TrEMBL record:
Swiss-Prot/TrEMBL keywords: ATP-binding, Coiled coil, DNA damage, DNA repair, DNA-binding, Exonuclease, Helicase, Hydrolase, Isomerase, Nuclease, Nucleotide-binding
PROSITE patterns hit by this protein: UVRD_HELICASE_ATP_BIND
Native organism taxonomy: Bacteria, Pseudomonadati, Campylobacterota, Epsilonproteobacteria, Campylobacterales
Gene3D superfamilies (UniProt xref): 3.90.320.10, P-loop containing nucleotide triphosphate hydrolases (3.40.50.300)
Binding site for ATP: A9, S10, A11, G12, S13, G14, K15, T16
Name this polypeptide is given: DNA 3'-5' helicase
Enzyme Commission (EC) number: 5.6.2.4
Length: 912
C-alpha cells in the first residue's frame, strides 16, 4: 500500500470503492478505526461511507473485486484476509469511528477548545438572523463610525443590505490585507486636476477645423462624471490617434494633453481603489468584532464562524501536540473524500495534522481522492487548486488516475470523451467503459426560447416511457431552482397522474396541506386577503370563498393553534402532524409566522417518488438510468459582487474593490480580472462535466437554437447514437388512486357512535389499497402461470403488509388464479409480447394501460378491475385506450377487454 497517495477519480470511476478498500486495508495492517480520520462533505456521504465499510467487511469474500483489490493493497493472501474477517467486523462494530463531515470535525475541535475564546461549549449552530444582526450592529456604532459607514454608502452608491452581504462574504473567506488610510479629500482634488487637464483636450477639439461633429460630441462634458461617461470609448485608448474620430485632428500637442490625462487618471484610480478597500475593511473589522460579541451573547455560531474561530485557535492559541492530547486521539491515518471541494480555510485547519503525518515515520498514511473536473462549488469556497498544490508542495505524495468508468455505457463515455478532450486548456483524461451500448441524443429545441418552453421535454418523457423506460428511472437536470419548479408545474399539468418529485417539493413547508395551514395562520395573523386566497387556491376552492375560523390566534400554544386550525380546514395528514410536532421550537405564534419559511424539514414520504427534477448542483454525486439535460433557460446573471479576490495558487495575492474602468489604468487589476474570467469559464465547463456524467444508460440533451446556448462551450452538434435502453425494474410509476387522507384516531369519549360516513371512508381506503395491491401483483408477474404468481404474491406482501391482512393477500391470489384458469385469456396471451402498465401520451393526457398484449399484428388491451360493480365508466375508459392505440399505431386490429377479478370467478368482458 502506498502510504501517501492522491487519486484523481473521474466521474463513475470507483472513488467510493477505492476509499473503502483503503480503509479495510488499513484495518488489516493493524490500524484501529479510531486512528483513521475519514472526512467527507455531507452527512449523507459520511453515513454511506460507514455503512459501505461495514457491509463490505460483513460480506468480505463474496465480491471478488473487493477481495482482489484488498489483497493487492495489503499484500496479504485472500485466505489470510478471510481469516481476519470476523475479528475486523467485531472491531469495527464496537469501535468509536472517526468518520465525520469536515464541518463536524472542525466543530468538534472548536467545542473542545472554545473556552480559550470565551464561548460556551453548548453553543448552537444556526443561520444568522441577518435582519436583527444588521440592526444591532448599526446601533452599536459610535457616531463617528456611523458617519463613515453612511459616507461610504453614499460614495459607493451601496445599500446597507449590500454592504452587509460584503461583510458576510469577507467572513466566509476569512482573508485580510494591509490597508492604507486615505483621505477622501485627495480624491476630490485629483478629480479636479484631471478635469482641468481634460478641458485642454476639449478646447483643442472644439477649436480644430478638422474636428467632426462626432469628435465634438465626444468631448461634450462639464464634470468629472460626464468626462468618464463621454470618454468611455476614447480614454481607454493608448493614444488619441487610436480613436477614429480624433485621428484627423491629432498632433503632438493633443497627444501630450491625452498622455497627461491618462497619467492623472492612473493616479486617481490608485487613490480611489485604495480609499474604497481601506474604508471597507475599517468598517468590516468593526462588524467582525461586534458579530463575535453578539454570537457569544446569544450562544450560537454560524458555520463560517466555526471555521474562522477554529483556525484562529490552531494558528494563535494552541499547538498541534496539545490539540492531539485534548482530542484524545492521535490520528495516524487521514482519508479525505471530494478533496476538490475543500476550502482554503478548511485546508489550513487540517494542514497541521496532514504535515505531522507526512513528516512522521512508522505506520502512518495520508490519502485523498477527488476530481477537479467536478469542482462546482467555488462560490462556496471550494478551492480546486488545492488538489495539485498538495502534490507539488509534498513530493512524497504519489498520484494515480482512475480512468475506467463503471457507471455509464460505452456510447455515453465516448460522447463525454469526445466533448472534453478537444479542449486544449482543460485537464482531461479519456475514460474507458466497461458497459456496452447506451443511448445519446442531442437535439436543438427551439421551444426553449418560446412561451411553451417545455412541450418537447414532455413529449420526450412520454416517448421514453413508451419505449420501456420507467419514469422512476428518469431525471431531468436544470440550471436553476426556478427552472425546476417551472418544469415540475408543466409536467404535472401534462401528466396529472405521474409521480414527480423535486428537491423543493420534498420540503415540508411546500407540501400542499402544510402550505395551506401556514397561509391560514398568516391570514389570521396579518388579516391580509393574499393569504386567504392562497388557502382557497391550495384547497381547490373558488376565489374569494369565505374562510370562517373562529379561533383567537393570540391564545394557546403554537401547537394547539395549529392543531385546531388544521382540524377546521380538514387537512390533517401525516405531514401536518409533523409540522405540529416541529412547531414546539417556536416560542409563540408570532415567532412561527416570521420564522416558518426557514424550516428545512422534509416531507413524511420515503417511498420512491417517481420522475425526478433537480438542479445540476443537486445531482452531483448521484447517478440515474436516464437523464434529460436542459440548456440554461435564462442567461447567467453577471457577477455583481463588489470584491475581487486574487490568489497565486492558494496564497492570497490581493483583494480589489471592483471599480468600473479600473482595468484600463491598473495592470494588476486587469490581470486579476482575466484570471477570474478564466476560473469562471472553467466553472462552466465543470458544471457541464458533472451534468453529462450522471447518466448510466440514456442521455438526452436539449440545446437552445441560439448563440447563447451553454453547450456551445463544447461545440455540441445535433446527433443520435445507439438505441434507448429499457428499464429493468417495472415498479408502478404513477398514481392510480385518489390522494389518501390521513385520519387521526379518535381517542376521546367512547360513547360517541361511529357514523356510517366514517364506515364508508374506512371501506373506501381499504378498497383502494386492495386494488393497488392487486394491480401490483399482476404487474410483478413475468409470465401468467402459478410459479410467477407465487413470486408476485411474496413481493406484494412485502410492499403492502402494513395496509392489508393475510386474508387479503389470499383473496388477491385466489382472484388472479381464477384469471389464470380463464381459457380465453390464456389463448390470447399465449406467445404474445407484453407491456405491463403501458404509458402513452394521447391528446395531451397520460394514459396507463394495465396490460397491452401484441400478437400477430393485433393489439389486445386489458384493464383490471377489483370492484363488485360493472360500471359504464369502465367501458368509457377502455374505449379511450382503444382509440389512442388505433391512432398511434395506425392499426384497426385493436381488441379491448375489462377483466373483473372477483372471488368466485374472473370475468373477461370484451368491449366493442
Amino acid at each position: 500500500m502506498k502510504r501517501f497517495l492522491a487519486l484523481k477519480a473521474s466521474a463513475g470511476s470507483g472513488k467510493t470503492f477505492a476509499l473503502t478498500v483503503r480503509y479495510i486495508t488499513l484495518l488489516l495492517l493493524g490500524a484501529r478505526p479510531k486512528e483513521i480520520l475519514t472526512l467527507t462533505f455531507t452527512n449523507k456521504a459520511a453515513n454511506e461511507m460507514s455503512e459501505r465499510i461495514y457491509n463490505t467487511l460483513l460480506n468480505l469474500g463474496e465480491d471478488e473485486a473487493y477481495l482482489n483489490e484488498i489483497a493487492k493493497q495489503s499484500n496479504l493472501t485472500k485466505e489470510k484476509i478471510l481469516e481476519k474477517k470476523e475479528i475486523l467486523v467485531d472491531m469495527y462494530t464496537n469501535a468509536t469511528l472517526s468518520i465525520f463531515t469536515i464541518d463536524k470535525f472542525i466543530n468538534m475541535i472548536l467545542r473542545e477548545f472554545c473556552g480559550y475564546i470565551g464561548i460556551s461549549d453548548d453553543f448552537e449552530i444556526k443561520e444568522d438572523d441577518s435582519e436583527a444582526l444588521s440592526i444591532k450592529f448599526l446601533e452599536s456604532l459610535s457616531l463617528e463610525a456611523f458617519d463613515k459607514l453612511v459616507d461610504f454608502q453614499i460614495y459607493e452608491k451601496k445599500k446597507y443590505s449590500s454592504l452587509f452581504d460584503i461583510f458576510q462574504n469577507l467572513l466566509e473567506k476569512n482573508e485580510d490585507i494591509e490597508t492604507v488610510n486615505i483621505d477622501a479629500s485627495l480624491i476630490t482634488l485629483q478629480k479636479q486636476t484631471i478635469l482641468d487637464e481634460a478641458y485642454k483636450i476639449k478646447e483643442f477639439i472644439l477649436n480644430s477645423p478638422q474636428a467632426s461633429d462626432a469628435a465634438k460630441n465626444a468631448v461634450d462634458f462639464n464634470s468629472f462624471e460626464e468626462l468618464l461617461a463621454k470618454g468611455k470609448t476614447w480614454l481607454s485608448k493608448d493614444s488619441a490617434a487610436e480613436f477614429r474620430t480624433f485621428k484627423k485632428c491629432s498632433n503632438e500637442l493633443l497627444e501630450s494633453f491625452f498622455t497627461k490625462v491618462k497619467s492623472e487618471l492612473k493616479i486617481y484610480y490608485k487613490i480611489r481603489a485604495g480609499y474604497s478597500i481601506s474604508r471597507l475593511f475599517e468598517l468590516f473589522k468593526l462588524f467582525k468584532e461586534y458579530k463575535l460579541k453578539y454570537n457569544i451573547s446569544k450562544n450560537y455560531l454560524h458555520f463560517s464562524d466555526i471555521s474562522n474561530l477554529t483556525y484562529e485557535l490552531l494558528s494563535k492559541k494552541i499547538d498541534k501536540e496539545f490539540l492531539y492530547f485534548r482530542l484524545d486521539s492521535k490520528f495516524s491515518h487521514i482519508l479525505i473524500d471530494e478533496f476538490q471541494d475543500t476550502s482554503l480555510l478548511q485546508y489550513k485547519i487540517l494542514q497541521p495534522l496532514i504535515e505531522e503525518i507526512l513528516s512522521a515515520g512508522g505506520f502512518k498514511s495520508f490519502f485523498y481522492v477527488g476530481d477537479t473536473k467536478q469542482s462546482i462549488y467555488r462560490f462556496r469556497g471550494g478551492k480546486r487548486e488545492l488538489f495539485d498544490y498538495v502534490l507539488k508542495s509534498n513530493p512524497q505524495v504519489e498520484v494515480e488516475i482512475l480512468n475506467t468508468n463503471y457507471r455509464s455505457c460505452e456510447n455515453i463515455v465516448n460522447f463525454v470523451n469526445n466533448s472534453f478532450n478537444k479542449l486544449s486548456s482543460y485537464e482531461y483524461y479519456d475514460q474507458m467503459s466497461v458497459h456496452k451500448s447506451g443511448f445519446i441524443e442531442v437535439l436543438e429545441d427551439s421551444a426553449l426560447l418560446e412561451e411553451e418552453k417545455y412541450v418537447n421535454i414532455a413529449k420526450k418523457v412520454s416517448s421514453l416511457m413508451q419505449k420501456g423506460v420507467n419514469s422512476n428511472d428518469i431525471a431531468i437536470l436544470t440550471y436553476t431552482n426556478d427552472d425546476v419548479l417551472s418544469i415540475y408545474s408543466y409536467l404535472k399539468k401534462m401528466f396529472p397522474s405521474l409521480k414527480i418529485s423535486t428537491e423543493m417539493t420534498s420540503k415540508l413547508i411546500n407540501q400542499e396541506n402544510v402550505k395551506a395551514l401556514i397561509n391560514m395562520v398568516k391570514f389570521l395573523y396579518f388579516k391580509e386577503d393574499l393569504y386567504k386566497e392562497n388557502v382557497n387556491a391550495i384547497l381547490g376552492k373558488e376565489p374569494s370563498s369565505s374562510l370562517e375560523i373562529l379561533i383567537d390566534i393570540k391564545r394557546g400554544t403554537t401547537q394547539e393553534l395549529l392543531y385546531k386550525i388544521a382540524n377546521v380546514l380538514n387537512i390533517t395528514d401525516e405531514n401536518v402532524i409533523k409540522l405540529i410536532e416541529l412547531s414546539n421550537k417556536y416560542k409563540n405564534i408570532v415567532e412561527f409566522v416570521y420564522e416558518i419559511d426557514k424550516l428545512e424539514a422534509s416531507i413524511e414520504n420515503s417511498e420512491q417518488r417517481g420522475l425526478q427534477i433537480l438542479t445540476i448542483f443537486k445531482s452531483k454525486g448521484l447517478e440515474f438510468h436516464t437523464v434529460l439535460l436542459i440548456d440554461r433557460i435564462k442567461q447567467k446573471n453577471a457577477d455583481r459582487g463588489s470584491l475581487l479576490f486574487e490568489y497565486d495558487n492558494v496564497e492570497l495575492k490581493n483583494i480589489y474593490y471592483k471599480i468600473s474602468g479600473l482595468e484600463n489604468y491598473n495592470e494588476e487589476y486587469k490581470k486579476a480580472l482575466e484570471k477570474e474570467r478564466a476560473l469562471a469559464y472553467e466553472d462552466e465547463l465543470n458544471i457541464l462535466y458533472v451534468a453529462l456524467t450522471r447518466a448510466k444508460k440514456n442521455m438526452v440533451v436539449f440545446k437552445k437554437e441560439h448563440k447563447n446556448s451553454v453547450f456551445n462551450l463544447l461545440d455540441l452538434n445535433v446527433q443520435q447514437i445507439g438505441e434507448v435502453v429499457k428499464s429493468e425494474n417495472k415498479t408502478i410509476n404513477y398514481e392510480k388512486s385518489e390522494k389518501v387522507i390521513y385520519k387521526p384516531l379518535n381517542l376521546g369519549v367512547q360513547e360517541k357512535p361511529v357514523s356510517k360516513e366514517d364506515d364508508d371512508k374506512e371501506y373506501s381506503l381499504y378498497s383502494r389499497y386492495f386494488g393497488i395491491a392487486t394491480h401490483y401483483c399482476l404487474e410483478m408477474m413475468n409470465e401468467f402461470n402459478e410459479k410467477s404468481l407465487n413470486n408476485a404474491i411474496n413481493l406484494t406482501k412485502n410492499r403492502f403488509s402494513s395496509f392489508l391482512k393475510n386474508s387479503d393477500f389470499e383473496s388477491i391470489k385466489k382472484r388472479v388464479t381464477k384469471l389464470l384458469e380463464n381459457g380465453k385469456f390464456q389463448d390470447i396471451v399465449k406467445n404474445a409480447t407484453f407491456n405491463k402498465e403501458q404509458s402513452l401520451l394521447y391528446n395531451g393526457e397520460l394514459k396507463i394501460i394495465d396490460l397491452l398484449a401484441i400478437k400477430e399484428n393485433s393489439y389486445y388491451i386489458f384493464d383490471y378491475k377489483t370492484t363488485k360493480d360493472e360500471l359504464d365508466e369502465h367501458q368509457i375508459q377502455v374505449k379511450q385506450y382503444k382509440k389512442a392505440i388505433e391512432e398511434i399505431e395506425e392499426c384497426k386490429n385493436v381488441y379491448t377487454y375489462i377483466i373483473y377479478l372477483k372471488d368466485e370467478k374472473a370475468v373477461l368482458k370484451e368491449i366493442i
